[in-house]
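4.2 Preliminary Data

To establish feasibility before requesting continued support, the project team ran the inverse folding procedure on a target of 295 residues. The structure was first converted into the token representation described in Section 3, and no sequence information of any kind was made available to the design step. The complete token record follows.
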């Protein structure tokens, strides 16, 4: 997306196209290594954890350099209105892909609750399925499967840390919106204050989610191996936590850029893109709170 050795001069009437960028290839390799490490770590392979963190460190270093190139190109005035439109379209499609990503996991949750478990219980048209696959199965949602496999567990109460985290994320959506309006009005002090509060709220959310995970594993016996409930719970909340982590990092970077005087009232798409992403993360959490914790 960007070339570290971009020309120092560019005609703004011409759509800027960087050439010879190596970052997409490097990022793809780092992502591949990271996911190989993550998959092997989940399967308790001895070297999986090390490979995961090596790949993650490489990916962060690559993104640092890549984004630095993009920032330098933007500050050099290479991007005209047409390039800005392309960035906006790209961000819209990226968020759409994230919507479909979470839709797959929500779909797995709904399928298990509304179809798979009733069939295994012999409800409706599932008598034959019940008799053929698991005649001894009797249970509802949340299901832990056979006790000798996943073990008995307790669910996380919705009105404890999950409710607190919901309030934290909703508040962060308000603070980032206030920061955006401050930027458009040229009020840099208010911008830095409320954007900084948004970063702190993101960190606070992650802290409480880590506390929740420790509580679930140590005291509730709720793990990834706790049947279909445990797997869908940790996949949905875990991937959302990863998105909050990414969003918090992006907000922190935008805060540093604002501190250095980047962005103007009319030219600040990087801020808008991160704000869009953060609001998306908030909306996903509301769905998680309702369908995972409450219902």
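Position-by-position output of the design step:
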């Amino acid at each position: 997306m960007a070339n570290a050795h971009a020309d120092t001069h560019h005609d703004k009437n011409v759509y800027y196209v960087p050439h010879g960028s190596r970052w997409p290839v490097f990022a793809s390799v780092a992502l591949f290594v990271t996911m190989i490490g993550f998959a092997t770590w989940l399967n308790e392979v001895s070297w999986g954890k090390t490979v995961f963190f090596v790949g993650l460190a490489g990916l962060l270093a690559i993104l640092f350099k890549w984004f630095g190139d993009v920032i330098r190109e933007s500050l050099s005035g290479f991007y005209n209105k047409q390039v800005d439109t392309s960035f906006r379209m790209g961000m819209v499609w990226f968020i759409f892909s994230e919507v479909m990503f979470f839709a797959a996991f929500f779909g797995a949750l709904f399928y298990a609750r509304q179809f798979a478990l009733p069939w295994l219980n012999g409800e409706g048209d599932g008598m034959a399925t019940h008799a053929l696959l698991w005649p001894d199965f009797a249970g509802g949602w949340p299901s832990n499967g056979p006790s000798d496999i996943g073990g008995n567990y307790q669910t996380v109460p919705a009105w404890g840390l999950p409710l607190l985290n919901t309030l934290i994320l909703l508040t962060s959506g308000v603070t980032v919106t206030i920061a955006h309006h401050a930027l458009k009005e040229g009020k840099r002090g208010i911008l830095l204050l409320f954007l900084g509060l948004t970063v702190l709220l993101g960190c606070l959310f992650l802290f409480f989610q880590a506390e929740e995970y420790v509580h679930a594993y140590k005291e509730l016996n709720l793990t990834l191996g706790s049947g279909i409930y445990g797997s869908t719970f940790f996949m949905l909340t875990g991937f959302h936590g990863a998105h909050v982590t990414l969003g918090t990092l992006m907000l922190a970077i935008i805060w540093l850029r604002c501190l250095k005087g980047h962005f103007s009232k009319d030219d600040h798409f990087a801020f808008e893109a991160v704000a869009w992403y953060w609001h998306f993360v908030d909306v996903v959490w509301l769905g998680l709170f309702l369908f995972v914790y409450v219902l």
